[in-house]
């Protein structure tokens, strides 16, 4: 109980230090993620209802990651050059429009085009978040800001997943056609995304805090190719592993255990809540054992749980493994992002964020396209096994690069 109280007190104190801009970005992020989580839950089930096979669903979902991959580097340039008060509201409005289109279009080409646009536009927020927080926070509260943003992206899954699954099943129960119910749920998600325009328009001009200034650095200084490779390659492996299974977890529960959409929504929501609590606890773990070790241990402990999902056919055990895997694998993301941005100068942070995202989404795109066919032909076991292997390889690389003596960088490393 004392640990919980300590975590709560730390976040209360950190939140008091958050700048108004950081709070406004968090508000916009909250609305975006409620909508995105609702759409994420329903969309693949909606495609299945449209008679798409797993391979076909994988092909459509891969276009979203393809959009993110293509736009990642241009988005970093936009984030660095344009006022976030203009860029973020426009991106939110256009993302909402793309979600509406993918919910209403009928032809496969039109749906894929809308999904591609939604993936491309949503990348603007992911590329912008880290550098924005670095500019609008001090060193004292920064780790908590990163973690709270990551926790919100998971915690909003409780609202999005329960609302999505419950709304769809509720409408069907009232006699609404299933396809219409799916579309209604998707459109409500798009409305949440559109609502994010308001807090983003209220972001004020900000100056870089003194801790972020880097006098003496010339325009093209700060790119350390070996360091960047170490920061990017583990993300590439994780993206590849995630693309093999994560887009299909709702289909896994439906096909393997016959769960209803509302029950799947409840399971996903529970996973999001558990992950929220894990991410919130991240700063304390990082403070005790250091950021790289926190990343290593949380990820390596998640690997066996992926194999449980592939081979266990008892629903309670599968759900328990799913929840624990969600917590362990995702709680390290804000810590890893904060650590990476500390290792590069401010003028390179948007670019590093973009390159990391490009590597992740690029590998995710390829993997999602391949895994749809794998699952269609042979079920989920092969994909889960490959995911576990790739996650383990990423975790070992991270240990070699940032924990083992000669591989670990000096600048920005946490206290031992």
Description of the structure:
It is a single chain. The protein has helices at 2-17, 20-49, 54-81, 84-104, 108-135, 139-173, 178-195, 197-201, 225-245, 249-257, 261-289, 291-311, 315-330, 333-342, 349-378, 381-402. The longest helix is centred in the middle third of the chain and has 35 residues, at 139-173. It is mainly α and 416 residues long. The two termini are 27 Å apart. It has a single domain (2-202, 223-402), classed as Growth Hormone, Chain: A (Up-down Bundle).
Which architecture does the CATH hierarchy give at level 2? Up-down Bundle
CATH superfamily: MFS general substrate transporter like domains
Question: What fold name goes in the CATH topology slot?
Answer: Growth Hormone, Chain: A
In total, the number of strands is 0
Q: What is the typical, i.e. mean, pLDDT? A: 82
As for the number of domains, it is 1
Helix and strand sequence: HHHHHHHHHHHHHHHH
Would you identify the regions where 5 or more consecutive residues have pLDDT less than 50? 209-220, 410-416
Described by strand count, sense and barrel closure, the largest sheet is: none
Give me the Rg, rounded: 20 Å
State the separation between the terminal residues, measured CA to CA: 27 Å
Which features would summarize this protein structure in a list?
mainly alpha, 416 residues, disordered C terminus, 16 helices, Growth Hormone, Chain: A
Q: How do the helices and strands line up, and which of them pair or pack?
A:
Layout: H1 2-17, H2 20-49, H3 54-81, H4 84-104, H5 108-135, H6 139-173, H7 178-195, H8 197-201, H9 225-245, H10 249-257, H11 261-289, H12 291-311, H13 315-330, H14 333-342, H15 349-378, H16 381-402
Helix pairs in contact: 1-6, 2-6, 2-7, 3-5, 3-15, 4-5, 4-7, 5-15, 6-7, 6-11, 6-14, 9-15, 9-16, 11-12, 11-13, 12-13, 12-14, 12-16
């Amino acid at each position: 109980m004392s640990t919980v109280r300590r975590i709560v007190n730390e976040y209360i104190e950190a939140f008091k230090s958050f700048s108004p801009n950081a709070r406004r970005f968090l508000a916009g992020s909250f609305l975006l993620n409620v909508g995105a989580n609702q759409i994420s839950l329903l969309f693949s089930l909606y495609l299945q209802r449209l008679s798409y096979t797993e391979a076909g669903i994988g092909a459509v979902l891969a276009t979203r990651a393809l959009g993110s991959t293509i736009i990642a580097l241009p988005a970093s340039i936009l984030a660095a050059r344009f006022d976030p008060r203009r860029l973020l509201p426009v991106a939110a409005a256009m993302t909402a429009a793309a979600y509406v289109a993918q919910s209403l279009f009928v032809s496969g080409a039109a749906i894929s085009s809308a999904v591609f646009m939604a993936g491309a536009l949503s990348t603007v927020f992911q590329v912008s978040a880290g550098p924005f927080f670095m500019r609008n926070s001090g060193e004292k509260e920064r780790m908590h800001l990163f973690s709270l943003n990551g926790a919100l992206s998971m915690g909003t899954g409780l609202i999005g997943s329960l609302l999505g699954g419950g709304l769809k099943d509720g409408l069907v129960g009232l006699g609404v056609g299933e396809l219409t119910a799916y579309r209604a749920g998707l459109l409500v998600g798009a409305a949440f995304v559109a609502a994010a325009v308001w807090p983003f328009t209220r972001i004020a001009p900000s100056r870089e805090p003194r801790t972020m200034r880097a006098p003496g650095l010339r325009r093209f200084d700060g790119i350390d190719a070996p360091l960047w490779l170490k920061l990017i390659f583990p993300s590439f492996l994780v993206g590849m592993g995630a693309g093999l299974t994560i887009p299909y977890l709702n289909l896994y529960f439906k096909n393997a255990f016959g769960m209803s959409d509302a029950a799947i929504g409840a399971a996903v929501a529970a996973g999001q809540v558990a992950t929220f609590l894990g991410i919130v606890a991240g700063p304390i773990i990082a403070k005790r054992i250091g950021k790289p070790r926190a990343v290593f241990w949380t990820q390596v402990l998640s690997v066996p749980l992926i194999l449980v999902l592939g081979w266990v056919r008892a629903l309670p055990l599968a759900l328990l493994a799913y929840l624990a895997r969600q917590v362990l694998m995702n709680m390290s993301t804000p810590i890893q992002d904060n650590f990476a941005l500390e290792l590069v100068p401010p003028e390179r942070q948007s670019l590093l964020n973009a390159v990391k995202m490009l590597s992740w989404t690029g590998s995710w795109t390829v993997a999602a396209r391949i895994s749809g066919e794998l699952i269609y032909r042979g079920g989920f076991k092969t994909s889960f096994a490959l995911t576990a292997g790739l996650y383990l390889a990423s975790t070992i690389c991270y240990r070699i690069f940032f924990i083992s003596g000669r591989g670990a960088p000096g600048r920005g490393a946490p206290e031992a």
